[in-house]
Amino acid sequence: MPAGIKTKLDPIHQAFLEDAIALFEGTRYGHMSPWLYGREGAPWWEAYAENSTAAAEETLLLKRLVKSKPGAITQATEVIEAGPGAPKAVREETSRIVRAAPHAKLYIPIDLSDTFHASTADEFGKNFQDVTVYPRKANFFKRVPIRRLLKNPLLVCMGLTISNLPCNVEEESPHDVLVKALKNLKATAQHKGHLLVSVDAHNDGKDVVANYDSVIVKNFYLSLITRMIHELGLKGARESDFDYRPVWDKKHDLLSHELVIKRPLHIRLGHRSFRLKEGHRLRVNNSFKWPNGFFQEAMEDAGIPPDIKLQTQRRRVTLYLAPNEP
Ligand SMILES: C[S@@+](CC[C@H](N)C(=O)[O-])C[C@H]1O[C@@H](n2cnc3c(N)ncnc32)[C@H](O)[C@@H]1O
Q1: How much distance in Å is there from the Cα of 83 to the middle of ligand 1?
Q2: Whole-prediction pTM value?
Q3: What is the CATH number of the domain that holds 259?
Q4: Which atom of ligand 1 is nearest to the CA of 116?
Q5: Which mutation among 58, 90, 110, 112 tests ligand 1's pocket best, with the greatest number of atoms within 8 A of CB?
Q6: Count of domains in the chain?
Q7: Domain range spanning residue 202?
Q8: Is the model's pLDDT at 3 over the cut of 50?
């Protein structure tokens, strides 16, 4: 291990290492979304989100929702957020929600990114001195224990984050994996209050590929390699050994974000080594583009049938608000 890499990893780095090994050995794929937003990837995500039309559409929907003053927001006593992300999202979305929730005295951001935890605390603190921030560094696709008794929480998962569901589509049913993830969000909110989720509903294949085919997105995905070098001691590869390719999988309504190897590599990671051929594809992350019916059915199957559904005219983003009852 190089200097700076601890021989005994903390549980989060251990999970990162296991996911990275699974990616190189090809036993899992589409599962790396939790690890993309380290200090290397976060600035690229910020640059992407800055000009994202989907983010702008989502903010529009949120404005409409907040204006209608639903009890789920106005009566919320806690706001839990799965993946607050960059300061712009906290400014334009999180803050808008918390401002509309006068009884909310506790804000619980759940994120695996240290960078975004720090910026969220900063941005949030500027606006809400009387709301306690209780940050959790955990994987929200699993159940996250919140060691506080919640009264009427609103759990929000914005930024189309649920569409990055870790799922190996060749072996797992996206419906079942999605239902499980939704049930875990429900459990994180202690089966109380409401869930507000935004979903990517734009599934014109050609258009979708064009949306991701940019230098910013490429650098965002390549930065994962540098993060592995810095934090996991990966040897035998650099960013320049990979190309980024967005691939449309029509059968699964899935945009697969892939890193393609440009020359034969002998990679060492943890106690493992991998020989990978030129052209080998690493399927790093999923962006599902489910039809509306698919997502709604999954919510119903998870026991959270939505009672409000909002969609933009261009039908790229859908917002669901659902009671999270036992
Ligand atoms: C797609 S970004 C969305 C950010 C923001 N909500 C927005 O609207 O732009 C996903 C966020 O969730 C975090 N994240 C992704 N997967 C995660 C996971 N499984 N567990 C915890 N955090 C995760 C990332 O660090 C990032 O902050």
Answers
A1: 4
A2: 0.95
A3: 3.40.50.150
A4: 27
A5: 112
A6: 1
A7: 1-304
A8: no
